[in-house]
Prior knowledge:
mainly alpha
Amino acid sequence: MSTLTQPDATTEVVKERALIKQAQKGDPSAARQLVESHQQRLFAFVWRLVRNWHEAEEICQEAFLRAFSHIERFDESFRFSTWLFTIGYRLSLNRMRKVVPIATELDSNRLPCKDEGGPERVAQTEEAAKLKRLVWDAVDQLNPTQRAATLLYYREGLSCQEIADVMELPAATVKSHLHRGRANLRQTLAQVSGADWQSLRLA
Length: 203
């Protein structure tokens, strides 16, 4: 799923762990680099769950605050992003239980993405752009658990076990949510003749 080669992935892990150790010693520069490395991806994930720009900003700020408040507890057997997304997911679920979801008119082109040019960059034609919108609309109709699993799998490239770590669920349960999510997406997108949504990047 990941586009990183093994050497690149290893280098990223080593660099990230070095930054975490510096952050644990109180280095603000290291903390800032960790924030900058993950804030766009975390915001895009949280926004897709809560569907409110202001709420997503608050949740992300709280997630980073909690992460750095307990940075000394960080378990190096996990990626920092896994830990951070776990916090963001918990906060999002708590917020969704307390408030009625508010539909927003915010265009998905404004969603941040690690690729320069935004999440609609791959939609080069009118037909592709239309399909992209249909896919996003279908994802938004999934229940929160299926939506989170689908985003983490297809957008973030996490494995089922990594998603299980984020969502604090058994891997088998994650696979079940992904299976149901795919089935629901296929049903929603059945109106698009021959649409292969699985080949379209959710970014």
